[in-house]
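User: I'm writing a tutorial on reading structure tokens. Could you give me a worked example: one chain, its sequence, then its tokens, then a sentence or two explaining what the tokens reveal?
Assistant: Sure. Here is the example chain.
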Amino acid sequence: MTGLAQALVGAAESLADWANATPGVTARVAASTLMNFAWAGLQNLLRDNPWTPPPPP
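And here are its predicted structure tokens:
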């Protein structure tokens, strides 16, 4: 779980940098973007359905 927390923090920091540099992006829009990004993945983890890469060719 620590790795997931670090990944989410990194995504949030990058998104905040982008939002601050992009005119018209509000804090609410940035927060909604992050939640939509994270929620789908977290929902799958809670359902014990993690993403796995396809097998190599």
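What the tokens reveal: The two ends are 30 Å apart (CA to CA). The longest helix spans residues 2-21.
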